[in-house]
Design a protein that fits this description.
heterodimer; A: about 110 residues; mainly beta; 7-stranded mixed β-sheet; 4-stranded antiparallel β-sheet; B: about 120 residues; 11 strands; about 50% strand
Amino acid sequence: DIVMTQSPDSLAVSLGERATINCKSSQSVFYSPNNKNYLAWYQQKPGQPPKLLISWASTRESGVPDRFSGSGSGTDFTLTISSLQAEDVAVYYCHQYYSIPSLTFGQGTKLEIK
Amino acid sequence: QLQLQESGPGLVKPSETLSLTCTVSGGSISSSNYYWGWIRQPPGKGLEWIGGISYSGSTYYNPSLRSRVTISVDTSKNHFSLKLNSVTAADTAVYYCARPGIAGRTGYFDYWGQGALVTVSS
């Protein structure tokens, strides 16, 4: 299985400041024939299902605020929230969908307001 | 707007079989070759992909659960189902059904049900 390791486990950021969450995969999730990284990011608030924010490492879903961005390639990825808003308090997960049938998720990063 | 809804017993006894159904509305389960999936989340913990199925019945299963899992589809009822046998307390979780954003294979999930809490206890 590809192991996804997020850092940090928890993060406290002031409103309006930048939040950065990292995700490292134990193997590359880059597929060279189509030049794509098979990596997604989700936001999960208490009592709700995960919400897809970003697919293909950097493609923002329709309706997701542009303060959310994804970057990285191969084994190292980053989710950045450029200016933290109160509604961004949540747990964030990275997810690799490169390795079938062994899709795996990171352990989650809890984001709070400082 | 596509919607998914899980249903099934919220309490299952140890060693018995957990059974859940995901009913899809706002779209046909047969409309494209999506691998409709099941994901679970133990209370206070992270996400674990269980498996997925296409409308034709082709399946992917998580190798760690493969021996205990069966996923089936009923296109006439526009739903798909999960069975997990020989359950233990470790199988207590919120079970989500979801649709991947990629047709033809499983992948990231862009539509999710609200989740169903299943507790394994005698």
